[in-house]
């Protein structure tokens, strides 16, 4: 098992969320700018102090991070462009952490941001990948709901889950969103009966299995622990992290992601076991993917998932707090910001800065990401464990 | 019944969706080869809502499925309403449009003769 060096001396701080809206006339660049401004306000740093910039966005085209330096009159000595959607937040964290650790940058702003006009989601799906245009669109043009319905159907049958088991994830996350003013659906309670009775989208996916596209941004800073201390910031250390791409491509239907290839390395690097984690923030484009991460990251065997989801309380006050801000299923999917949501919420919980409710005594949080459905599954997977330092 | 699949002339790997080089040996020597595309239906779903409702209004709900071919290729295809998961199917180009459809093989042990 290859072993990565630890992230010694690196801190993550300043979780920032630019409020989500269903649609927006603000550009993606505008959302990045607001996130950057939020990071400066939260840290007390000046724009000139930010010498690294890592950005992920789907709707900024044709611009990338380099164009942003001119938009914002910045002269960073390190930039990254991370176009991997649902995995981009943790991938930004990993790259920024190594840059800080090696002295290539002192303070890195990591930002995921997207806008949403009424037509942008359909356009994004139309142009998402060469494979999906050629090999998914002719089949009723279902968008990502098509491949994920196939994954869900297969997963339920193969591992003995019922729709209600996935419903428990959606229902608990909606309960978690209550009190989070940024969750677009946070004020609408969801019952299991309502989940089960929802109209079909691509069966077995129904309405509450699907995220609502929206606009918004998520962001955080990576810097040395000394710098975070000097600034008086509540911060977290990176106990461990992994990423993997195009894992298990031989599986005819995706039943696992790269997490299961790397879970041992993750826990080993962190020196922790799953029971040490106080809250879990998975990527949740669909409930089945949240369930897949719970098992791939070694919280339970896949054949035991149904029992696990029945026996554990996934709410903030429960014994297995999952997606404690409500996740994308309740907040909305703000494009690439959705790929930052798990790591930003993990950082919020272990530094005592939740937008909604605090997981009592949260010290260790696991975040995971899943990005880029180019044909019939997402290719990019990543995970990170954060531990509060203050 | 045959289907045109992209095959590598160097190593024989079949692949879908089509690529610019062979996924196994990275050769550019790729050719479209009409072959019997026989496999197993491993997952199915029913499309009720399309991102392009205008184009698909008449065909919804539409059953789709994942077929795992013997040549270690997987494909999302149109699936007959009465097809059952686990059944052996043969693939062909659907009439009109760019879709590929599955036809259930009557006898799981029989291979159909090429009809075209
Ligand atoms: Zn080859």
SSE inventory with pairings:
The complex is a heterodimer of chains A (390) and B (116).
Chain A: E1 10-21, H1 28-43, E2 52-56, H2 65-71, E3 78-81, H3 88-101, E4 107-114, H4 120-126, H5 130-135, H6 145-159, H7 163-177, H8 192-197, E5 200-203, E6 205-206, E7 215-224, H9 225-230, E8 235-245, H10 258-270, E9 279-281, H11 287-296, H12 305-311, H13 327-331, H14 337-350, E10 364-373, E11 378-388
Parallel strand pairs in A: 2-3, 2-4, 9-10
Antiparallel strand pairs in A: 1-7, 1-8, 4-7, 5-6, 8-11, 10-11
Chain B: E1 3-8, E2 14-15, E3 30-35, E4 38-47, H1 53-56, E5 62-69, E6 74-78, E7 88-93, E8 100-104
Antiparallel strand pairs in B: 1-2, 1-3, 4-5, 4-7, 5-6, 7-8
The structure holds zinc ion.
Describe this structure in words.
The complex is a heterodimer of chains A (390) and B (116). By secondary structure, chain A is of the alpha/beta class. Chain A has two domains: 10-119 and 215-230, Thiolase/Chalcone synthase (Peroxisomal Thiolase, Chain A, domain 1), CATH 3.40.47; 139-212 and 236-388, Peroxisomal Thiolase, Chain A, domain 1 (3-Layer(aba) Sandwich). Chain A has helices at residues 28-43, 65-71, 88-101, 120-126, 130-135, 145-159, 163-177, 192-197, 225-230, 258-270, 287-296, 305-311, 327-331, 337-350, and strands at 10-21, 52-56, 78-81, 107-114, 200-203, 205-206, 215-224, 235-245, 279-281, 364-373, 378-388. Chain A has a nine-stranded mixed beta sheet, sandwiched between helices. With 116 residues, chain B is mainly β. Chain B folds into two domains: 1-36; 37-109, OB fold (Dihydrolipoamide Acetyltransferase, E2P). In chain B, 3% of the residues lie in helices and 41% in strands. Mean pLDDT of chain B is 91; it is low at 112-116. The chains are: A alpha/beta (390), B mainly beta (116). At the A-B interface, helix 4, helix 5, helix 6 and strand 5 of A face strand 4, strand 5 and strand 6 of B. Strand 5 of chain A pairs antiparallel with strand 4 of chain B, so a sheet runs across the interface. The structure holds zinc ion. Zinc ion (ZN) binds at residues 8, 10-11, 13, 22, 24-25, 27 of chain B.
């Amino acid at each position: 098992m290859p072993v990565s060096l630890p992230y010694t001396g690196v801190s993550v701080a300043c979780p920032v969320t630019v409020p989500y809206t269903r649609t927006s006339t603000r550009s993606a660049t505008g959302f990045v700018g607001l996130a950057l401004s939020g990071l400066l306000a939260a840290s007390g740093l000046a724009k000139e102090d930010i010498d690294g910039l890592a950005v992920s966005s789907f709707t900024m085209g044709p611009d990338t991070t380099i164009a942003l330096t001119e938009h914002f009159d910045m002269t960073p000595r390190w930039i990254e462009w991370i176009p991997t959607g649902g995995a981009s937040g943790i991938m930004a964290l990993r790259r920024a952490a190594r840059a800080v650790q090696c002295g290539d940058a002192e303070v890195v702003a990591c930002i995921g941001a997207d806008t949403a006009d009424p037509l942008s989601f359909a356009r994004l799906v139309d142009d998402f990948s060469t494979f999906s245009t050629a090999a998914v669109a002719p089949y009723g043009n279902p968008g990502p709901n098509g491949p994920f319905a196939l994954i869900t159907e297969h997963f339920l049958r193969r591992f003995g889950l019922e729709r209600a088991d996935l419903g428990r994830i959606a229902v608990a996350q909606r309960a978690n969103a209550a009190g989070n003013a940024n969750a677009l659906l946070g004020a609408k309670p969801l019952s299991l009966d309502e989940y089960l009775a929802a109209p079909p989208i691509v069966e077995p996916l129904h309405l509450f299995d699907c995220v609502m596209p929206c606009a918004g941004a998520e962001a955080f800073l990576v810097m040395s622990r000394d710098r975070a201390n000097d600034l008086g910031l509540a911060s977290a250390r990176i106990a461990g992290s992994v990423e993997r791409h195009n894992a298990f491509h031989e599986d005819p239907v995706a039943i696992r992601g790269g997490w299961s290839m790397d879970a041992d390395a993750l826990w080993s690097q962190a020196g922790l076991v799953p029971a040490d984690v106080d809250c879990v923030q998975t990527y949740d484009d669909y409930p089945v993917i949240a369930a897949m991460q719970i098992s791939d990251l070694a919280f339970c065997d896949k054949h035991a998932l149904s029992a696990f989801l029945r026996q554990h309380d996934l709410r903030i006050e429960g014994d297995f707090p999952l997606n404690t801000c409500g996740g994308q299923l309740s907040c909305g999917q703000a494009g690439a910001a959705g790929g930052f949501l798990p790591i930003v919420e993990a950082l919020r919980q272990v530094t005592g800065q939740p937008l909604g409710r605090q997981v009592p005594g949260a010290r260790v949080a696991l975040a995971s990401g899943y990005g880029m459905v180019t044909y019939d599954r997402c290719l990019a997977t990543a995970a990170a464990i954060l531990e509060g330092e203050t | 019944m045959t289907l045109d699949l992209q095959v590598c002339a160097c190593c024989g790997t079949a692949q879908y969706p089509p690529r610019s080089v062979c996924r196994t040996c990275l050769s550019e020597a790729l050719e479209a080869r009409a072959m019997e595309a026989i496999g197993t239906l491993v997952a199915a779903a029913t499309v009720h809502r399309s991102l392009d409702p205008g184009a698909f209004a008449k065909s919804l709900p539409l059953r789709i499925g994942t077929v795992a071919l013997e040549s270690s290729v997987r494909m999302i295809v149109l699936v007959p309403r009465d097809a059952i998961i686990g059944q052996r199917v043969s693939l062909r180009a659907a009439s009109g449009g760019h879709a590929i459809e599955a036809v259930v093989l009557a006898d799981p042990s029989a291979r159909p003769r090429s009809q075209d």
